[in-house]
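**Tokenised fold:**
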Amino acid sequence: MDVNAAVAAAAAIAGVLTGVIAMLAFRWSEREQKRPTRSSLHTDAVLPPGVDTVLSVLRSSAVVLDEADAVVKASSAAYALGLVRGGKLAVEPMLQMARDTRRDGEIRQVELDLPRRGTGRGEALAVSARVAPLGSRLVLLLVEDLTEARRIEAVRRDFVANVSHELKTPVGALSLLSEAVMDASDDPEAVERFAGRMQIEATRLTSLVQELIDLSRVQNDDPLEDAEPVRVDELVAEAIDRCRHQAGTKQITMAAGGTADLHVWGNRGQLAAALGNLVENAVNYSPARTRVGIAARRVNAAGGEHIEIAVTDQGIGISDKDKERIFERFYRVDPARSRATGGTGLGLAIVKHVAASHGGEVTVWSAEGQGSTFTLRLPEAGAARDRAHQQPARSERAGGAGLDEEAGRSTPTSPESTAYETLPAPEVLP
């Protein structure tokens, strides 16, 4: 009996101890759950009410630092710019600004150039950083990316400088020629010669001003506001008429083919100007007694069917280093030749802007001594595409003479030239 009583007493004591331990563990667990975590201290308990919401809608990159310089809150843009790494502010000048502001409470602002992450070309990010106190313990850092604004400003400065130079040349020439006319007033032949030169410079000045106006218009206007289906054959005919005199002077034959029953969607005036610039360049940079070909076709693209209009010449060609820059404003492959032909260096820039604003693109294939092919790709008009789907399938054309073959040369390495081998024989327009 004594042994059994002892065992029962020991079991009772063990049960009581187990219950006490379980109760203590439960209370400790509840207390740990109610204790705020480090992240909740940073976001909920530390940040003033509403600040988190305000920071989430700011366009600037936002970073909130506590008294230990730890990041309490950072926007996704701050991480994208590389401002925050491993929970710390990674830009030492900004960190020092935050410490100074925490010490004296003054708002500070500075512009910095930061290295761009992930590139080995030494490119820099231009940013504007502004630091201000947020409550008694926190510091708010707002960072604005100024890289694109600075790039646009640099482009604007270059554009103004180029315009000033281009305008100064014909204006200066007109001033000198007018003085020469006055000095040679008693020499009719000299007056006539100088007057002819004045007409050339005045024409050049007029062309430059007009192309500046055209470039400004295509950059600022929305061409799709007045968009309409435009017949490709009409655009080609207008471009040929525009260059007929120059082509006749150099005995250049212009050939057009494959443009029937094709429509593009856009502003007729801008499209005509773009195609006219391509044809005019082809004529100006082609030797005498050669051919300029214009061909079009329908192609399938990711965004729907497009129309490709290719302008091929037998000119001097373009080097590889110049291909990357020919669409820049005022850039000329051969400045001396451009001045002789009256070129302003804006024609291809206008073509590029027109193509981009219409949802298309312009590309170039060229080889020195073999000529060039500029291809303008534009979305097809929706109504024309629907009509094309309703018509019965056309039989395949066979034996059609290619445009380059009709032009009297073969360019097997040109992707544009091989793409138009199935077009019908072009209509020769002398």
Notes: The longest strand covers residues 124-134.
